[in-house]
């Protein structure tokens, strides 16, 4: 950490920071590790600032490699700004995408991502888990260069590219999983969650593959809403018959923690909530379509987590949705999804029809409104979407849903539950660190 503190260039601090993380992970589940203790005790603000800056520039470097393959720059963004730091261009090995790359060439290059510098994320995870002061620095720190986004924005931006391409390799999937663990740790701490809701910045999210979420209405927005988009994108872009079950479980875990904080604190964020509902309910249909294959992968846990989030939104939505139309839209989409929810319950054996279970709560709401709509259709055959929304509002009066205020909170994060995955990440990080050290030696010769 002394070397990190003395580094003039934030990217020069990346390797000693990475080495600290590798040492902290050496047999950490089998023996007492002094490096991990040091993370917890660390209080030097200036060094933490240097660490966060180093993480930011590393994330910018890693993201630039994705953009070099396929430039997805939205109108109003500048690629040149991402490589403006002195020395970054040479280290990045990435330039704006050359014209004429075929789809096959792009695919091969994407399969090689993320760069070996991603091994730094392992240290970031350990520091985040061990030190709340560092978490505060990480989320709140502003950029030291006005041309660059704040560090946490850079992290979320790189994570979005990583998540959108996580399906391409086991290595990319493991690193994506690690970023989700970092977000789990941050979002389950109420003070940090509050900070993520209150701190605004511009966050560039990956737009390299359809479907694409709408661009935010304002350039600066709360980090929490960028995370919601990051999660929705991750859900939509990794749908495969061989579903990455651990990735989806952690994605839903982050989402559950964020929604729980928003509901408890009654924080109402302006956001395109309808896109989140659409992503979640499209995921329900995907799980139904490939139920036979996915059941063999243990996807019933994913199905249960998905149902729990939908019930969480349904029962507590009034506490965190800023406008009635956002809440109405959720009900409307649930009405449309009644058959799909019933199929999900049966395909994954979530409950029996008579059980008091979350999935039956959703099905009950859908049935309640479907019956109301049919009764209106008996008087008028064709109902417009506006009329259906009006029926949904009227239906609140006869709908009985108990808010989940007294429900058990989401289980606290336990690192031991992720022991196998973290050991896999550590092995990948060691291999990547070896690549970096070897390339450094070659440059010095």
From TrEMBL:
Membrane-crossing residue ranges in chain numbering: none
Keyword Iron belongs to the record: no
GO CC list: cytosol; membrane
A Pfam family it matches: ARMH3_C
Predominant location: membrane
Keyword annotations from UniProtKB, A to Z: Membrane, Transmembrane, Transmembrane helix
SMART domains: DUF1741
Name of the protein in its database record: Armadillo-like helical domain-containing protein
Organism: Hortaea werneckii (Black yeast)
